């Protein structure tokens, strides 16, 4: 899965070095980032012309907070390749006016010409970015409340095992407007979410199901994550 995802990103960058990417955090994409770093180290791939956006950031965390997605992206990817730091964007979770920050971030994506390739993980509850079940399909970058289940899954990333209650997340509509979308999932704990997302019903109750209506969305999943597809009508 990680190799296929890295190949897809690399292929897009080689065809169009000025690609605009919208990228995820979490455990799932770590292998993809590792492979992209290896391709760069081997002299096979440059990121210098690309523009990067991240899907989300916890509200209230400074960019240097060890559990922030700023630090995750810096340590796992941006610091290890040749990105132009002026073209790397992560929502500022510590902005004095978070609503204005959401607007600014959405505006930057539009100014960049929209997203060419969006890579997503999927939550056990079917979330994409931090768009939890019930997120309107027409939503834009905004402040969201995290599902309690999401906070529990992510609690281990935080001192005191308490994840923030809110985040800034790129919205469903903005994700959908990406020209191409890859959703990555691995492991049996994603099987129900993948099955619901790929099932017959497209519903805001399962955010990832929105991708069924997208002309260029691909689910890249391993055998365990695909194991319940077909079980859920
Ligand atoms: P994970 O998170 O890759 O850490 O499982 C995915 C997600 O919640 O979107």
Query: What are the segments in which pLDDT stays under 50 over at least 5 consecutive residues?
Result: none
Ions, cofactors and other ligands present here are: 2-phosphoglycolic acid
- Global structural class: alpha/beta
Count of alpha/pi helices:
7
N-to-C SSE series?
A: HEHEEHEHEEHEHEHE
Please tell me about this protein's structure.
- This protein has 233 residues and is of the alpha/beta class.
- Helices cover 29% and strands 15% of the residues.
- Strand 1, helix 2 and strand 2 form a beta-alpha-beta unit.
- It is globular and about 45 Å long.
- The protein starts with a helix and ends in a 12-residue tail after the last strand.
- The model has no long low-confidence stretch (mean pLDDT 97).
- It binds 2-phosphoglycolic acid.
Key traits:
alpha/beta, six-stranded parallel beta sheet, globular, binds 2-phosphoglycolic acid, 29% helix, 7 helices, three-stranded antiparallel beta sheet, single chain, 233 residues
Topology:
Layout (H helix, E strand, L loop, with lengths): L1 H14 L4 E4 L6 H12 L9 E4 L1 E3 L10 H8 L11 E2 L8 H14 L5 E4 L21 E4 L2 H7 L11 E4 L2 H5 L3 E6 L5 H8 L18 E5 L12
Parallel strand pairs: 1-2, 1-5, 2-4, 5-8, 8-9
Antiparallel strand pairs: 3-7, 6-7
Helix pairs in contact: 1-2
Bound molecules: 2-phosphoglycolic acid.
Q: Quick recap of the structure?
A:
With 233 residues, the chain is an alpha/beta fold.
């Amino acid at each position: 899965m990680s190799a296929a995802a890295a190949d897809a990103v690399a292929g897009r960058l080689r065809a169009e070095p000025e690609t605009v990417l919208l990228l995820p955090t979490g455990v799932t994409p770590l292998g993809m980032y590792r492979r992209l770093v290896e391709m760069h180290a081997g002299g096979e791939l440059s990121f210098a012309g690309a523009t990067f956006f991240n899907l989300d950031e916890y509200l209230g965390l400074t960019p240097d907070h060890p559990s922030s997605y700023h630090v995750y992206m810096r340590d796992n990817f941006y610091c290890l390749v040749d990105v132009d730091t002026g073209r790397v964007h992560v929502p500022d979770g510590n902005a004095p006016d978070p609503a204005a920050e959401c607007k600014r971030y959405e505006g930057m994506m539009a100014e960049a010409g929209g997203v060419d390739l969006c890579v997503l993980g999927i939550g056990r509850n079917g979330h994409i970015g931090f768009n939890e079940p019930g997120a309107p399909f027409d939503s834009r970058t905004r402040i969201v409340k995290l599902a309690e289940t999401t906070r529990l899954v992510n609690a281990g990333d935080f001192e005191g095992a308490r994840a923030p209650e809110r985040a800034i997340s790129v919205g469903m509509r903005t994700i959908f407007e990406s020209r191409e979308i890859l959703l990555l999932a691995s492991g049996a704990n994603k099987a129900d979410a993948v099955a619901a997302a790929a099932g017959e019903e497209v519903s805001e109750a399962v955010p990832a199901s929105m991708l069924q209506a997208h002309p260029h969305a691909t689910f890249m999943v391993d055998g365990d994550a695909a194991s319940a597809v077909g079980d859920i009508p």
